[in-house]
Amino acid sequence: MRQGWRWFGPEAPVTLDEVRQTGATNIVSSLHQVPIGRVWTEAEVAERKSLIETTPAGRSPLTWSVVESIPIPDAVKRMGGKARSEIEAWIASLEAVAACDIPIVCYNFMPVVDWTRTELDYEIETGATAMRFDQERYAAFDLHILQRAGAEAEYSPEDRARARAVYEAMSEAEIAEITRIITSALPGSTTEPMTVPGFRDKLAQYAGIDAAKLRQHLVEFLEAVTPAAEARGVKLTLHPDDPPRPLFGLPRIASTADDYAALFDAVPSPANGMCYCTGSLGVRADNDLPAIARRFAERIHFVHLRATKREGDGRSFHESAHLEGDVDMVAVLKELVAEDRKRDAASQMVFRSDHGHRMLDDLAKTVTPGYPAIGRMRGLAELRGILYALGVVPN
Prior knowledge:
Blueprint: E1 2-6, H1 16-22, E2 26-29, H2 42-53, E3 63-68, H3 74-79, H4 84-99, E4 104-107, E5 119-123, E6 129-133, H5 135-145, H6 157-169, H7 172-183, H8 196-204, H9 211-231, E7 235-238, H10 257-266, E8 272-277, H11 278-282, H12 289-295, E9 300-305, E10 307-310, E11 317-320, H13 329-340, E12 350-353, H14 373-389
Parallel strand pairs: 1-2, 1-12, 2-3, 3-4, 4-7, 7-8, 8-9, 9-12
Antiparallel strand pairs: 5-6, 6-11, 10-11
Helix pairs in contact: 2-4, 4-9, 5-6, 12-13
Pathway: Carbohydrate metabolism; pentose and glucuronate interconversion
Family: Belongs to the mannonate dehydratase family.
Keywords: Iron, Lyase, Manganese
């Protein structure tokens, strides 16, 4: 298994030399500066690849192995195969990536909002901070700040009462903060930042699009792009929904094993693969993570390893330490290792320690939310320890 690290580019707080110090060897990155929907040029991809892979004297080499992500424009999610120009542009970006010999592309298909949290620095018992999704704060935003049309029907009377109490206790600063977190697009997001009125407008554009229709649009997208990926030796890996359930009245279609099975049945190309994220899938108690890894082993090319802890209401959760929370990481890694041992070196899975607590010196620094250096390095070291115990020397 190959040790990856998500790097947000030359402006990121974590440098490539600091990545080397964590033990990671494979970079997960993207052209975050390119607007969503604009074609990536081969020259742009080659420039970023050169920056990553040109190794200074005496330094350990790094390889750009995963693009996370080429964003899928909103029009594709709303219109499917009818969004022809947007899909053609996406294929052109894929071709630029393939021309630079980057073999894995991660993407997601979450409409309007990408991965969603209500707090970025929730203080835990150690004094470190974690990201959190609080169901009551989310409902307070949905019902009283966003004031989404039809939202009240989706909540029980008890939920509505708690949401109102939470909202009425919020200061103006807290209202501004949760609005910023939910609407401004978190790091690595493949959706555009929005204002509250813009958010409402986006939601209105999805009227009549249920889970079946959204899945149809994803299948139409995959039918168009997987031949290009397969011909060029690129594996496409769909990231799960985060959290893995509908938000803001929108369907989500990559939340369970059955969701993935439906997509693999519809588009059986070997290029149609999975980004196996234990944190996203682990939020749902009904997702059996080792069983999912075993069932889709041949489809897994890229892995996010992190753990979440479900809270008392079953809907709220926070990011836990990598070997804690609700994920049996040892059982998961046993399944992944069993598959990886069947592969040659070039097709081994790339894994990265995803997210991480803000801790130690990072508490006093500017960090990318969800991606502090020290918390992720701790997680990578713990994961590496499990792999060594399983008889695997990660590369």
